[in-house]
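Expect chain and fold; thus:
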Amino acid sequence: MNVRYHALLDEIRAEFPGFRLVRKDDSAFQRLIHGLLALATFGAQRGYLTSYQTTIGWTVYVTPDWDDRPADVRWVTLRHERVHLRQFRRYTRVGMALLYLLVPLPLGLAWFRAAFEKEAYAETIRAAVEVWGPARVREPAFRESILGQFTSGAYGWMWPFRRHLERWYDGVVAEL
């Protein structure tokens, strides 16, 4: 049992009384999204159900292996997802859906999706430093794992401007 992880769950429940964790593979809606994403990305996003946690409203949909992941990994991930919970509160479910999925384009140039994810991944970076230390976020593989989310089919090639993303990442790390 990780005290830090359970304390964060308690904080999130206090901030979002309707908060819940739901396994993605138990949700027909999430399975539908998985199929649609595989089609829309021409097969580039096939790991939606098994590799990505997803927040919609006050629900965080988690992968089937969620409970088997180390508590520190779950803690870092929930720090990221709490940012999305706050975004949903700020923009509403409809507002988030429109901005995240469509503006200005659903694939290739999704400015709002990139902005929302940059805010959440900045929190991932900060949380990773708290758990594993600053050397971790300077590792090329860790950096690439985050930058690749923006430039690959994982999020529909949401922001193809690699240099911009590198400057953003390095700026977040420099602030730590």
